[in-house]
Write a structure and sequence with these properties.
single chain; 331 residues; alpha/beta; Rossmann fold; 2 domains; five-stranded parallel sheet; 16 helices
């Protein structure tokens, strides 16, 4: 089913207002830069905006959805809409050159041509310089939409030639509702909405057996820590690193552990409605009565420091073991 302004507005009201005003006032920019965190709907917005600009029976700012152009954009085969994505890990100079050659030709069925560059931050230096020249001398009725999660990696000279459209992180509640609409259980939706902002990633994690195991293991490790059991480190060695076998997965495991300790802070603040691990709420309440807010905050600091060490390519097992030892001493 095709997306709509209404759905996009629920996710990104500021971006929607900006783009709608551009159409209403007939001030469509020759280049846009859609930037913001992963999973905030940037490509959905880019494709929909292309449909708005190409619709043959536009109703104000809303595409009809039924004309030939709308249907072709929806199906991904409109002859005047070009989408560039990285080849392997980067967008190459020859891709930009091929784009320029195509745009030098007369548009097939409509004067306007649109190109979308996904992960624009991956452009090589030569590709970025080629694009810069293209932006400086745009073909008439050409609209470029660059999409990026890392604005700082885009050449400042490119940024200055684009209308910047910032995409805000999705509100947690909004994201929870989206996930529940996909029939993801509430307890899982609460958790996923706090560890990712990407709907596709969340849906995949919800189906992953290892993620269910990871969640159980984090709860088991937490319970071992708060009970001051000395077998916590053994538990880690036997299961923790085996389950979180890559740095990305271990980072995710630490994110889950952070959420458990945050739940204790919510209890201290009498904000039980914000608890994520509701299945162990009584355990969390008992632990919160035994451990001070200072100790809980110190534990969060220890986990966050472990995350930093992982990013700096420290040894996974050593980072995890050191974290557990520090958490045991902190409690």
């Amino acid at each position: 089913m095709s997306i709509s302004w209404e759905e996009l507005n629920q996710r990104q009201p500021i971006a929607v207002k900006m783009l709608q005003n551009s159409v209403r006032k007939n001030r469509v920019a020759h280049a846009y830069l859609f930037e913001g965190p992963k999973g905030t709907g940037k490509m959905d917005m880019a494709v929909y905006y292309a449909k708005v600009l190409l619709c043959e029976q536009l109703n104000g700012v809303t595409p009809c959805g039924n004309c030939r152009n709308c249907k072709r954009v929806d199906s991904g085969n409109h002859p005047n809409v070009y989408v560039l994505r990285p080849e392997e890990l980067s967008i190459k100079k020859h891709q930009i050159q091929e784009l320029q050659e195509e745009f030098s030709k007369t548009a097939v069925e409509n004067n306007r041509k649109i190109y979308l560059i996904e992960h624009a931050d991956t452009m090589t230096a030569s590709a970025a310089n080629s694009l810069l020249k293209f932006l400086e001398e745009p073909v008439s009725l050409t609209t470029a939409i660059l999409v990026t999660e890392q604005l700082q990696r885009i050449l400042p000279t490119i940024v200055s030639r684009c209308q910047n459209v910032h995409f805000q992180p999705l509100s947690v509640k909004n994201f929870e509702n989206q996930l529940q609409a996909q029939e993801i259980p509430l307890d899982l939706a609460l958790l996923l909405a706090r560890i990712t902002n990407n709907e596709k990633e969340a849906s995949e994690l919800a189906k992953e057996e290892w993620f269910a195991q990871a969640r159980s293991l984090v709860i088991e490790l937490y319970e071992a820590l708060i009970s001051l059991r000395k077998d916590s480190l053994l538990l880690l060695q036997q299961g923790f690193v085996r389950t979180f076998e890559t740095k990305e997965r271990l980072q995710l495991g630490l994110d889950l552990l952070i959420l458990v300790f945050k739940d204790m802070i919510y209890i201290h603040a009498e904000q039980e409605q914000n608890i994520v691990f509701k299945e162990i709420e009584q355990t969390l309440k008992h632990a919160s009565n035994r451990f001070s807010l200072v100790k809980i905050t110190n534990c969060l600091t220890i986990i966050l420091e472990a995350k930093k060490r992982l990013v700096s390519n420290a040894n996974m097992l050593l980072v995890a073991e050191q974290m557990i030892i520090e958490l045991q001493e902190g409690l």
